[in-house]
Structures are given as structure tokens and as C-alpha cells.
Design a protein that fits this description.
Elements: H1 23-30, E1 40-42, H2 51-54, E2 62-65, E3 83-85, H3 88-95, H4 97-106, E4 114-115, H5 120-128, E5 140-144, E6 153-156, H6 159-166, E7 174-178, E8 184-191, E9 194-203, E10 221-225, H7 237-251, E11 255-262, E12 278-284, H8 291-311
Parallel strand pairs: 1-2, 2-3
Antiparallel strand pairs: 4-7, 5-6, 5-7, 8-9, 8-11, 9-10, 11-12
Helix pairs in contact: 3-4, 4-7
Length: 312
């Protein structure tokens, strides 16, 4: 089977960059609907279940991985021509904070300064290099390699807390990061083509004084869409998107959700910052879905599949 075409259009180009191929038009070109297949969604996250029903059938077999590293033998297509989004290796890179940080560093992604260490002394010495004074600047963040949605992350505010926290732990399974007290957090959903959906995470009022308010997730946040004035889009948005795409590509992902911490858009004097400081915290191949996210991904994943099919 050749490239998917639309009448005289030589190649499918994914929306919104060009017209989307309607399924009936593909049927006219490629024949019976019997040859159309829904993508196989590899995910255990309950919010992804509806994706299995709403994804459009396409004239080729495909797999979309969202957090799954299960290898699937291609037993149906000739010469292994099944199209896959997010390889198992890419999922491994992004699901391990150690591998992910190594990928980020190699690609010069703007991320938190970090180290690995095997003793409390090594943590203190290693983290001291990120301070102009040569002394460790507190707090620091300890992250388990496979922590998720706020679990496995600990804010350490003193040498005593570091030493007490280290007791009985396998430090080799952690990374240690400089803490950036930026007030805003965003999630950008990206492909190699850029950002196709973004939200701001804002703490619920009842959590503002909570000791764990330094990290934000579904349980303690509301999600603000770009259309909302409270989204407060930073002036250097294009630069932020660029680093999210670099994070994606560095891990080998086809799509993913980048979480960022971003400096306030205004100074304390009310002056707009031209360049807000920011860090890419992590990239996630299996973000939780709401109704809007589902609709965005349904369209974007379809376009990615067609693009990848045509690029073979």
C-alpha cells in the first residue's frame, strides 16, 4: 500500500497545517472499510480508556504507547510495517527520572540543575556547586527515579533533613535537584511540530498553605486553559515551547506532556518581564485526560499516525 492521498494531494499533511483526509475519501482510494483499523492504545491509565473508542479507523495498523513498555510482535503487517507512536525505548527514557535527566542534559534542555549521589556528604558537596557562595542553597529536591504524580518527591530544607532522610534509602535510585521557587506551573502537550495544547496549573485555595503546596498535581490543582485570562502567558512563550520540543525529542518520544515551572510574568514593580526564567521539570508520555484533552489528543494522534505512515 502506498502513501495515503487525498485526490490529487501528493501527501497527507496533518491538521491544522493542511486539509485533513476524510475517512470516506481514503475509502475511495484504498477500498473497503474492512481494511481500516483502530489504533491499539497501550495504557493502563483509566482516563485513556475512551481513546480506544473515539480514535478514527485508518488504513494501516498502528500502536500508540502511553506509559507502556510492553513489546508487541508485529504479526499482521508485511515486513513489520505497523506504525508506532512512542517506542518502548522512548517510554523507558521518559519514565525514569534518571534517564530523562540524562537525555535533557545531553540535549541542553533548560531543566533544574541536578546530581546523582550515594551518600549524604556527596549530596551536600554536589549541590554546593550550584551556588555562587560555594555552599549548598536550601531547599533541594530529592526525586525517586520512578516517582509519579507527586509521590517519591521530597523537599529537603537543611543538612539535618538530608541526613535523616537518607537513612535506609537506596540513594542510587534518586536524583537531587536545585529547587526553583518559580510561582507558576504549566503543562504543554507537544509533538516535534510544537505545542498543540497547554494548561496552567493553579493551586486550589484550600491547598495554598499546605506543606506539600510546592508541587502541583491533579489532587491539589485546577487547570486553567489558554483562553482564560488567568493563564497569564509568558512573553517568551516560543522559547518555552522550543525547550519542551527539545525535551520530547531528546527522549525519543513522538508526543508527550511537559511540566514546567515558570517565573512570574511581572516584576514586583508590575513591569512585564521580556524573558521569564523557566525549567522543564519533566515530560510524561501518559498524562491524565479530561474531556478537552481527549478531544485534542484524538485529533493530534491521528495526524501523527498519518504523518509517520507517509514518512516511511
Amino acid at each position: 500500500m502506498g502513501k495515503i492521498i487525498r485526490k490529487v494531494t501528493p501527501k497527507v499533511v496533518a491538521a491544522p497545517r493542511a486539509a485533513v483526509i476524510a475517512q470516506r475519501e481514503m475509502s475511495q482510494v484504498l477500498g473497503s472499510r474492512r481494511n481500516f483499523y483502530r489504533p491499539m492504545i497501550r495504557s493502563r491509565h483509566p482516563s485513556h480508556a475512551p481513546l480506544r473508542e473515539v480514535m478514527e479507523r485508518l488504513p494501516f495498523r498502528s500502536v500508540i504507547r502511553m506509559g507502556s513498555t510492553t513489546e508487541l510482535e508485529d504479526v499482521f503487517t508485511a515486513n513489520g510495517t505497523r506504525v508506532e507512536l512512542n517506542s518502548a525505548d522512548a517510554i523507558r527514557n521518559s519514565s525514569s527520572k534518571i534517564k530523562m535527566k540524562e537525555c535533557f542534559t545531553e540535549a541542553n534542555v533548560n531543566t533544574a540543575s541536578w546530581i546523582r549521589a550515594s551518600t549524604p556528604e556527596a549530596i551536600i558537596e554536589g549541590m554546593s556547586q550550584f551556588s555562587e557562595s560555594g555552599e549548598i542553597s536550601y531547599p533541594i529536591v530529592a526525586k525517586h527515579a520512578y516517582g509519579s504524580r507527586g509521590t517519591g518527591n521530597t523537599l529537603l530544607k537543611s543538612e539535618l533533613e538530608i541526613r535523616e532522610w537518607c537513612v535506609g534509602k537506596n540513594l542510587e535510585s534518586h536524583v537531587f535537584e536545585k529547587f526553583y521557587n518559580f510561582n507558576k506551573e504549566y503543562r504543554l502537550h507537544v509533538t516535534k511540530n510544537g505545542c498543540f495544547y497547554a494548561c496552567r496549573k493553579m493551586l486550589k485555595s484550600e491547598f495554598k498553605d499546605h506543606p506539600n503546596a510546592w508541587q502541583r498535581h491533579d489532587d491539589n490543582c485546577v487547570w486553567i486553559l489558554q483562553e482564560n485570562e488567568n493563564f497569564d502567558k509568558p512573553s517568551n512563550w516560543d522559547q518555552i515551547v522550543e525547550h519542551c520540543v527539545k525535551a520530547l525529542v531528546s527522549c525519543g518520544l513522538d508526543f508527550g506532556a511537559c511540566d514546567l515551572r515558570v517565573q512570574n510574568s511581572h516584576t514586583s514593580e508590575g513591569i512585564i518581564r521580556e524573558n521569564c526564567e523557566f525549567i522543564v521539570v519533566e515530560i510524561n508520555s501518559a498524562p491524565s485526560f479530561g474531556d478537552v484533552t481527549l478531544e485534542k489528543y484524538k485529533n493530534e494522534l491521528r495526524n501523527l499516525l498519518i504523518d509517520k505512515y507517509n514518512e516511511r
